[in-house]
Specification:
This protein has about 400 residues and is α/β, with parallel strands linked by helices. Helices cover about 40% and strands about 15% of the residues. The chain has an eight-stranded mixed sheet with strand order 3-4-2-1-5-6-7-8, sandwiched between helices. The longest helix is centred in the C-terminal third of the chain and has 18 residues. It is globular and about 65 Å long.
Length: about 400
């Protein structure tokens, strides 16, 4: 097999987003198996950076795993035009076909990246794109659709319904999904009849070790607590969790502990630890009563899987088909759709310690049986070889 070209809008060793972490871990595992690959990306810093600014210098570099990383300058964009249409998407307002075109043109793109792909396509067996909604995926996949594979990390959100995606996605060679509900969503949105598909999940390091006593000693938190781990932004529905928790905790000593990047949150009975090192995160998970994942837009959920590997149950949002599916398949937790259900689930998990422990053990077993990195990496390798018809 010739090289695989993995295309992503931004790349570094320390970006913590779910799609970015999945991408980085997958390429590292493929590299360990001596699968030839390169990462093709822009000079942008991250999702939260200025997409008109080249943070990195262009050229060929190597990441911490010695994987080649080719960086290409960003094409200057009309931020005002993009923001005005993005506002319509974010507020579920109608967006025309021509407005979609402006949205895609004025988001993150790199003409030099696309030119490189056209001029060097014969050197690559496949181009692999993630996530679905960015210019590098939309324009990149059109260069060689017959050798393009998308890992969409798809959510049921307004962007996923874009007419341009409905038109172009059916022309690629393959799609890889993180869960069965994500695949079903894609099949409902796009015509995938002529596309090869795979539900692979995300490969996890299932050898995680965690110690709740190390957490309690380091952070001096002895009270029982619910945990939220992840980005602290509107899209993760954290505001709903905090509102529900405030109502629930008025007459008890329960705490809500937050870990993850973003602006610190100050509220009664909420302890925001901010970004913590990975081992501290695992220790925190092992000490919690349960992890609450309130997001409705997930194509997987790394924190749910990590929490299960630390032996604790989870409480997820009923309106997230992906995490609800994981919970029901594993019997590793519960789900809620409103405050009354949140209160009832919390009461149950707090009052039934043995059942909570069993749920955590169920979840741990589920992750090890389905998403161990060796299992997932082997699925990807077989899929790439079948599509490229190369051994």
């Amino acid at each position: 097999m010739k090289k695989l070209g993995f295309v992503i809008p931004w790349y570094s060793d320390n970006i913590s987003g779910g799609a970015e972490t999945m991408f980085r871990n997958l390429t590292a595992e493929l590299h360990k198996r001596t699968i030839p690959l390169e990462i093709l990306t822009t000079c942008a810093e991250s999702f939260n950076s200025d997409w008109n600014r080249n943070y990195y210098r262009k050229g060929l570099y190597f990441d911490k795993n010695c994987i080649p990383v080719r960086r290409f300058p960003i094409r200057k964009r009309n931020t005002r035009a993009f923001d005005s249409i993005n506002f319509r998407f974010m507020n579920n307002m109608p967006v025309s076909y021509d407005e979609e075109k402006i949205f895609l043109r004025e988001m993150i793109n790199s003409n030099s990246l696309y030119r490189y792909m056209r001029e060097n396509s014969d050197k690559y067996s496949l181009f692999v794109f993630t996530p679905y909604m960015f210019g590098t995926t939309y324009y990149g996949m059109q260069i060689c659709p017959e050798k393009s594979v998308i890992i969409p990390c798809l959510h049921d959100e307004p962007y996923a319904h874009m007419m341009h995606f409905r038109k172009k996605f059916p022309k690629v060679a393959g799609m890889v999904f993180n869960s069965n509900p994500e695949k079903l969503l894609a099949e409902n949105l796009y015509n995938l009849d002529n596309i090869r598909t795979l539900v692979a999940g995300i490969g996890m390091d299932t050898s995680i070790k965690a110690n709740p006593e190390d957490f309690r000693q380091k952070f001096r938190i002895s009270q029982p607590f619910i945990l939220y781990s992840g980005r602290k932004d509107y899209g993760k529905n954290l505001d709903t969790l905090i509102r529900y928790f405030n109502r629930y905790s008025q007459n008890n000593c329960l705490k809500l502990v937050l870990t993850g990047g973003g602006k610190n949150i100050y509220a009664k009975n909420v302890i925001d630890l901010g970004y913590v090192p990975e081992q501290d995160k695992f220790n925190t998970m092992s000490a919690c009563e349960f992890l609450c994942q309130p997001s409705v837009n997930e194509s997987f959920s790394l924190v749910v899987m990590e929490n299960w590997l630390c032996g604790r149950p989870v409480l997820v949002n009923e309106y997230c088909s992906v995490t609800k599916n994981f919970v029901t398949e594993s019997n590793g937790g519960l789900y809620f759709g409103n405050y009354q259900e949140f209160r009832a689930c919390t009461d149950y998990l707090l009052r039934n310690k043995k059942v909570s422990d069993i749920m955590g053990q169920n979840g741990c077993r589920y992750v090890k049986n389905n998403f161990d990195k060796n299992i997932v990496t082997s699925k990807y390798i077989d899929f790439f070889r079948n599509i490229s018809n190369e051994s």
